[in-house]
Amino acid sequence: MKYQARLEKLYAIMREAGLDVVALIPGPNHRYLTDSVHYVLERPIVTFYPLDQAPVAVIPELEIALFQRHQIPSEIISYTDAEGYAGAFRRAIERIGPRGATIGVEGLYMRFFEGEVIRASAPGAELVDATEPLAGLRLHKDADEIAALRRAIAISEAALAATFAEVRVGMSEIEAAAILEGHLYALGGDGLSFGTILHAGGNTPLPHLGPLDYRIQHGDPLIVDFGATFQGYCADITRTVFVGSVSDEQRDFYSVVRAANAAGRAAAAPGVTCETVDIAARQVFIDAGYEHLIRHRTGHGIGLEAHEAPYMVVGNQRALEPGMVFTVEPGLYRDGEIGVRIEDNMLVTEDGAESLTRFERNLMVI
Q1: Which range of residues forms the domain containing residue 188?
Q2: Which of 1, 15, 44, 209 is deepest in the core (most CB within 10 A)?
């Protein structure tokens, strides 16, 4: 059974990391292990995974029906709004064993709130940040995950083509992004990988800001960083095009980024370190005299999150292995003038790497 195998993978990680228990709140790892989606709200939800024992979930009573549909059955300890959650957490700790256990949590996800509730319920327990070892849980994608990623990417690329056909001079960034997101849902996406980033003109160097009310002008660069999700799996694609016309300077700037993207993709293969991919793309910028305009790493993993391990960055000596999926997204940015980024989604295969994204990388004028 697929989900039992995933649970066994978690146990193996726990043994290697010296963890007696892993405590997860709703999020990507919880979904990966249970095939179910829950939300982080004011009523705490924590599932405890004791080593080699059945999980124990502390949940509000209203979540019972959904928890009973999990692929990995958990012992459920529920609480009502009237009685509160403190007693349920104490009972859960008694179920999972000694109160002096080492409990691994996701430092990037668990709130101070849940952490303090666990500490109060388990005197003497040591809570440790297990973000790094738990990153290995979803590092290698299976056939079903890869199929979902392929579908998310296909939806995203079709939506982008439809959007470029509709973008017009005078349209605001907000309007253009709304068109794109409409296509993403109409074509079968079940959500957005993240808030769409769509900017034109002098806004294109802005890395992680949502669309503004700037109106697209003739000759503007237009950068779109976006993705649909399918069955929760995230596409993450960036393309930069030009509206109406392109200057020689813009064309040259774009060509350097395209060459860096090609170098990063070409460097990917089993056994190659993540750092090597970053260096390959970065070297193109250095050789072209643009080292001072480099602002970020070359890529990151994608899956149930738009950003997850592995990371293509200098210093990361992790070797690429079949089943890993990550982005190659070099970019150059000149504040107030132009930003260009080209992002592809790569799958490491047994004998190389496949670009799951196929959208045009040659310069486009729309």
Answers
A1: 143-355
A2: 44
